[in-house]
Design goal:
By secondary structure, the protein is an alpha+beta fold. The chain folds into 3 domains: 99 residues, no CATH class; 188 residues, Jelly Rolls; 104 residues, Sandwich (Jelly Rolls). The chain contains 10 helices and 31 strands. Helix 7 runs antiparallel to helix 9 and helix 7 runs antiparallel to helix 10. The radius of gyration is 25 Å and the shape is globular. The C terminus is likely disordered.
Length: 470
């Protein structure tokens, strides 16, 4: 029989029961609690049930858990369930809940967020537009639900500030697959290129709009005069863009499509056939004049792009990237060659006022550890987090130890083993606070690449200790 307790803070109950255990002992509990969904409007509460096994392993708390929405039948079944991990795991399979084992990485299950330029694939996104999932045994629950069970144990109380890991997956078509030209004041982000669409870029070299052309800047005697000239070109384009968007909104209404719903590129092309040709020609001319100010940074497979604050940027069509960023939703849109669906305006004037016009200089990656089997590089060291890239030779492994709140690991190669979890390409896991990562490349032919994100938490120093072996 597993007792079910109503609690306000499940982790407090977990710690209290742990403190009563002798070394080697464990206890099974059901903890029913109200969870405030802080990421939704008005923060509504939902009733959740966590079923946990709390163990004392050499004086350290070990937690295995599941969580979900309880029903009367589920609560009744717990009262008859044997209080052992095997019985709980079997019960989870029957009710469709995942069972997260203490010593295993937490597998992140992404969700797709449609965009006018393609899609974002969120691995740790928690906001109104969607919540990423975590999975075990092929079953999943929302990431914030699991974090609510034991936020200190999982992520050292950082459950509301988990670094955002996502993939940017733009369409392969020019214009339709180009992202917003935008800048950030607070959000820090870094891209790692994982694919270049060969149909879009036959040379296998894509691009990102990144800052401004040096030659164009040299035409003006000051940064202010350059900014004003650029602003004039954007405003001219904006006026044409708005006329087209207003006409397409009428076509959306005619066809029963919501005004701010993402639609396919083919649908947009159909609507454009109903737009006067003279207006389309004007759009092309003003867009070309605007883009003449903007620099394009070439990108190849594996390239890393650190995006400084105040630098306007726009990933281009057909360039797929992994992105790590601070979990802050703020941006200023300078321009976009489609209708912006998430806001009714552009932020051009405000962005131009604060943007950097000098080209940012990319620093070389810093090597942290290199031997015949491994290479560990620091991709970026931001105020809030660090991102590392680990390259493993065939048939080699690396033991990654850290003192940090948690870490996020994404494999860019298929077959990489992290502890007891085998990852496919672009699959990711969260390593809870204190869990050591043993990363193995079992391939006998190909090297493997793993990206690692480590947060910086106040009063918590992150340290790296590692050893590698063939």
């Amino acid at each position: 029989m597993i007792p079910v307790l109503r609690v306000d803070y499940p982790e407090l109950s977990i710690v209290q029961h742990f403190q009563s255990l002798a070394e080697g002992e464990s206890v099974c509990l059901g903890l029913q609690f109200a969870f405030q969904q802080y990421y939704l409007p008005d923060q509504p509460e939902v009733s959740l049930l966590a079923v946990v096994v709390v163990a004392n392993n050499a004086g350290q708390l070990q937690l295995s858990a599941t969580v979900g929405e309880p029903s009367e039948n589920i609560l009744a079944e717990l009262h008859t369930l044997d209080a052992n991990p095997q019985a709980i795991e079997g019960w989870c399979a029957l009710v469709g809940w995942p069972w997260f084992i203490a010593s295993s990485p937490i597998v992140l299950t992404p969700i797709a967020i449609p965009k006018p330029w393609g899609q974002e694939i969120w691995y740790t996104g928690i906001e109104e537009r969607g919540q990423s999932l975590v999975a075990a045994q092929g079953r999943s629950v929302p990431l914030p639900w699991l974090m609510a069970v034991a936020p200190q144990y999982w992520v050292q109380g950082q459950q509301h500030q988990i670094n955002l890991l996502k993939i940017l997956d733009p369409l392969p078509e020019p214009i339709y697959g180009d992202l917003y030209f935008e800048l950030h004041e607070e959000k820090q982000e870094v891209y790692v290129v994982t694919n270049i669409d060969e149909a879009a870029w036959p040379s296998a070299e894509g691009g990102i709009r990144f800052g401004f052309k040096e030659a164009k800047r040299s035409e003006y005697d000051s940064a202010d005069s350059f900014k004003q000239a650029y602003l004039n070109k954007v405003n001219a384009y904006r006026a044409v863009r708005k006329d087209i968007d207003d006409l397409i909104d009428d076509l959306r209404k005619r066809d029963g499509v919501a005004l701010n719903a993402p639609v396919s590129a083919s649908q947009q092309k159909l609507w454009l056939q109903d737009i006067p040709q003279a207006l389309l020609e004007k759009e092309k001319q003003t867009r070309t004049a605007m883009d003449a100010f903007v620099a394009v940074k070439p990108l190849s497979l594996g390239d890393v792009v650190k995006v400084p604050c105040y630098t306007p940027h726009s990933l281009m069509h057909g360039v797929r990237t992994v992105e790590f960023q601070t979990p802050v939703y703020e941006r200023k849109i300078l321009s976009f060659a489609q209708k912006v669906l998430t806001q009714t305006h552009w932020d051009t004037q405000a962005a131009v006022d604060i943007m950097d016009v000098e080209a940012p200089v990319a620093a070389p990656l810093r090597e942290l550890h290199t031997d015949t089997h491994t290479c560990l590089e620091e991709i970026v060291d931001f105020d809030d987090f660090t991102v590392l890239r680990l390259t493993l030779a065939p048939q080699s492994q690396y033991r990654f130890e850290k003192a940090c709140a948690y870490s996020l690991l994404m494999s860019l190669s298929a077959g990489v083993l992290i502890n007891d979890v085998t990852l496919t390409a672009e699959q990711a896991v969260m390593m809870p606070n204190g869990l050591v990562s043993r990363i193995v490349n079992p391939s006998d032919k190909e090297p493997a690449i793993v990206l690692i994100s480590i947060p910086k938490v106040s009063d918590q120093s992150a340290s790296l200790g590692a050893e590698s072996e063939a």
